[in-house]
Amino acid sequence: MNSRKPLILAVIMLLVFSAGLMAQDDKYGKIDTVFAEPYQIDAKNWAVNVSMFNDEEIIAISIPLTFKAGKTAIVADSTIFKGGVAESFRVKHARIDTATQCVTIGLIADVGVSVPPIPPGKGRVATIFLSALDKSDFKLTMVDTVTTPPGNNLQLVKPPTEGIVPAFIVKKEAKEKKVKVEKKKEG
Question: Using 50, 70 and 90 to split pLDDT, how confident is the model at 172?
């Protein structure tokens, strides 16, 4: 029994210290934030807009996300960057892992060619499209950030190469806005 005490203490210490590593870390002003906003396209398809707020220039981004739809296995069919704040980046990659239902977005502004960084502000980074593996109807129940192999964490990079751990917020699914049309009374 005594040999387990050091092991239990080591595990507790590891958990305490690792929680501190995952905390938001932005010593350059306001806390930068990555947002995920899921929305339903139709009964068989969902999309997640990924956007961010940053108050300094950004030259690289890592956004690993995981998705759940109850017991339904889902897959990220595609990811688009067109029209987003990182559209001109030289490296735009979305690694899809169907087994773990994860997508890792990796973006780098410049690989030897001059590409401007993302300026401070707000904007969409990418849109991820999801469907069920068996082509059935489903409801997306969870979107979250996760660590994906080989160690991709949620992170923004400001010049020259300083990492920022942003906050992560999942926005509620936008409900359809109903517009009331009033008829004029004829007199």
Answer: confident
